[in-house]
Design goal:
Number of domains: 2
Membrane topology: Multi-pass membrane protein
Protein name: Amino acid transporter
Strand order of the largest sheet: 5-4-3-6-7
CATH superfamily of the largest domain: Amino acid/polyamine transporter I
Shape: elongated
Number of helices: 24
CATH topology of the largest domain: Amino acid/polyamine transporter I
Subcellular location: Membrane
Pfam families: AA_permease_2
Strand content: 5-15%
InterPro entries: AA/rel_permease1, APC_K+_Transporter
Length: 712
């Protein structure tokens, strides 16, 4: 089955261009813009949920305004360790996989994928509602169409490439930062004189509640507010997941980006919670809590007698709504990165590890984007429904990441001189994230949290089944390699350099490596066409996927590997007295690479006949086989046939060809000579049946003898 292909984006790219990685990589500032918007946009719904949870005990907002930044910096400090340990990206997924085991990584990655899909859906829905709140009410009925249109636009710009999407969204991000610095800064400075009274009221409220309910009640209320505002923390892991797209030195760039993200999130979220208390804001019908706060802050903003506070509020809310769209973009950017890493480890179909000519995971972007569209359509774009599904999954990944770091630093206590400080940060992070996760599940389970957990479980189960399938395929190909490579001398030495005949018939083989499948295809073709073929040509495509797109060194290693495999084919052929050569190329697009190689072969050998091998295992063939295997040979075969060239796909039955002859249901007419052949076959079958009947009769006569007779 061919995956969705978008020809308008296809182009050949030189992956060995030394300026390629520099042109695609992101400095800390651009990475903050591209990956930090998810966390910053959570100020639209995270802090309000925290404040609502304190109803009747608003004085506790002081503790939360301090506790939120502290917990953010604890978690971000843990993720700085992740960046240092895994500078090639992967974040929480690689941390759990490496430090806790592959199955923990599967759970972590699955949770992140679901979380990012929900991030895209809820961010677009919330952003649309924020923007429509300043427009006439009849626009509200069209919000679902606007949601879908915005998501389709985000899918489009991300297919154009990471850096291009960030450049488009940069002005929006900076407008949000500027308006909120002015708004929140003015709100704090203009009421700095209220700080002593707020401190006094906080102490008095804590003493009163301690006498009435006890300190356990106060602590439980604070933890509940933390958990209900868990959406505030989403996005912190995005930097560690995407560190591989950052500019060298990656570790320092990633850690600077994490510092920018943690600082900006702490300032915005902490300031909002404190300002809610300072301005005594309450929820108003048809307005968000932030809208009420901004209106209160700008209520007396005038210049030359002209009031512009309402205009400033609208501008701030518009930037907030637009930033939510950037947060949706972050989900669409980052989820395919996680999916690509999981595909490299075979938890997802291998096609998700492929990069497009824009060096993005096209298949992942399409799947995540359209999954978010489906969720919006299913929920009607209602934020109240989406919010109960949100924020659980990210804390699954947080908790597994901190647990893995804690285990790692404890194991390194005899080798790492600074293990105590790092272990302390990891354990604190684990305690914070595990507590919030437990309370969030308890609070949101009946309200829809069960659905999020169920979807995550389904993704985990599917990932495990996909891994089992690929594991069985690896076992099959290993057996095929062992069988076929027996015909190859242990120390393969190339024979004489036989001259090629460009005008002669040429057998051209698409191969990936020197293995059993390639050898079987070669030997089968040689048996079929060896009598008139003069040349044997091997085409190898080095595919640059997520695992190879790490830098020039990784690409050079890929080039060395591909050429070594190609030289083994040439040595084998020359050792057998066959003139042979090879061509290789390197690309992010497997089909484009194979087509380019075919064009090269045709240019040098016009009388080319193409061959490719295909493993057939009737036991593992199922309805989803096409999703797990790209089957690109059929696409290339169709293209070559349209150009007038023959291509044969040679089947390799690893468990033997089915022994039963095919059943013929329809009446078949045939020529008289074939009727004679058929009669001969019938006579042969009749003779066999008679012989079997005779043997059975003899056996029956032996059985019918006297049972008491002695055996001889």
């Amino acid at each position: 089955m061919a995956w969705i292909r978008l020809p308008r984006f296809r182009r050949a790219v030189n992956v060995f261009n030394p300026k390629l990685f520099e042109s695609l990589s992101l400095a800390a500032f651009l990475a903050w813009v591209g990956l930090g918007s998810d966390a910053l946009s959570s100020s639209a719904y995270g802090p309000p949920e925290i404040y609502y949870a304190l109803k009747g005990h608003e004085y506790l907002a002081v503790f939360l305004a301090i506790g939120i930044p502290v917990s953010v910096f604890i978690i971000s400090a843990g993720y700085k360790q992740v960046i240092a340990l895994f500078p090639d990206g992967g974040g929480g997924y690689h941390t759990a996989s490496t430090l806790l085991g592959p199955k923990a990584g599967l759970v972590s990655g699955s949770a992140l994928i679901v979380d990012y899909v929900l991030t895209a859906a809820i961010s677009v829905a919330s952003g649309t509602e924020t923007l429509l709140s300043s427009l006439p009410s009849y626009w509200y009925s069209e919000r679902i169409l606007i949601d879908v249109a915005i998501l389709l636009f985000l899918i489009f710009i991300n297919l154009r490439g990471m850096k291009e999407s960030i450049k488009i969204l940069l002005p929006i991000f900076m407008a949000f930062v500027a308006t909120h610095i002015i708004m929140l800064g003015f709100g704090l400075v203009s009421h700095v004189g209220d700080f002593p009274s707020i401190a006094h009221n906080t102490v008095a409220g804590a003493e009163r509640d301690n006498q009435l309910y006890g300190w356990i009640f106060i602590a439980a209320l604070i933890m509940r507010a933390f958990s209900l505002g868990g959406g505030t923390y989403t996005g912190l892991e995005a930097v560690a997941n995407g560190v591989h797209i950052m500019r060298e030195p990656r570790i320092q760039t990633g850690q600077r980006t994490m510092t920018l993200l943690a600082t900006s999130l702490s300032l915005v979220a902490g300031s909002l919670i404190f300002l809610y208390l300072m301005y005594h804001v309450h929820e108003h019908q048809g307005q968000t809590l932030n809208a009420v706060l901004y209106s209160a802050i700008t209520s007396d903003w005038t210049i030359a007698g002209i009031h512009f506070g309402s205009t400033a509020t609208v501008i701030t809310l518009v930037t907030e709504g637009l930033l939510l769209f950037i947060a949706a973009n972050t989900g669409i950017i980052t989820a395919p990165i996680v999916m690509a890493n999981m595909a490299v480890d075979r938890w997802l179909p291998e096609r998700f590890s492929y990069l497009s000519d824009r060096f993005v995971s096209r298949n992942g972007i399409l799947l995540v984007g359209f999954a978010a569209v489906a969720i919006l359509l299913a929920t009607g774009g209602h934020v109240s429904i989406l919010v109960v599904l949100y924020s659980i999954n990210v804390f699954i990944t947080f908790t597994l990441t901190m647990a893995g770091l804690s285990r790692h630093w404890f194991a390194q206590r005899h080798h790492e001189p600074r293990w105590k400080g790092r272990l302390t940060i990891s354990v604190l992070g684990f305690m914070v994230t595990a507590s919030i996760l437990a309370i969030t599940i308890f609070e949101k389970f009946d309200a829809g949290g069960w659905f999020t957990l169920l979807v995550t479980l389904i993704v985990v189960v599917l990932g495990y089944l996909i891994y089992r399938h690929y594991k069985s395929i690896r076992k099959i190909t290993a057996e095929l390699d062992e069988t076929m490579l027996d015909v190859v001398p242990e120390h393969l030495e190339p024979g004489p350099n036989l001259p090629l005949d460009p005008r002669g018939a040429t057998a051209v083989f698409f191969v990936s490596r020197f293995d059993g499948l390639g050898l079987h295809t070669l030997l089968t073709a040689h048996r079929m066409v060896g009598g008139f073929v003069k040349n044997y040509v091997f085409l190898l495509a080095g595919i640059v996927g997520q695992g190879e797109f790490k830098g020039i060194k990784a690409l050079e290693d890929l080039k060395v590997y591909v050429e070594a495999e190609a030289n083994q084919y040439m040595a084998f052929c020359r050792n057998e007295g066959m003139a042979a050569t090879w061509f290789a190329t390197y690309s992010t697009d497997r089909i484009l690479a194979m087509e380019e190689l075919a064009d090269v072969a045709i240019r040098y050998f016009p009388q080319s006949i193409f061959f490719a091998g295909r493993v057939i295992d009737n036991r593992s063939k199922g309805p989803f086989h096409g999703l797990l295997h790209d089957e690109v040979s059929f696409i290339v075969q169709d293209r070559l046939q349209h150009d007038g060239f023959s291509m044969m796909i040679v089947p390799v039955h690893v468990h033997g060809i089915p022994s039963q002859p095919p059943r013929i249901e329809l009446p078949i007419s045939m020529s008289p000579d074939m009727e004679l052949v058929q009669q001969e076959e019938v006579d042969k079958e009749g003779g066999k049946a008679a012989a079997q009947a005779s043997s059975a009769a003899k056996a029956d006569s032996i059985v019918e003898t006297d049972p008491d007779a002695p055996l001889r």
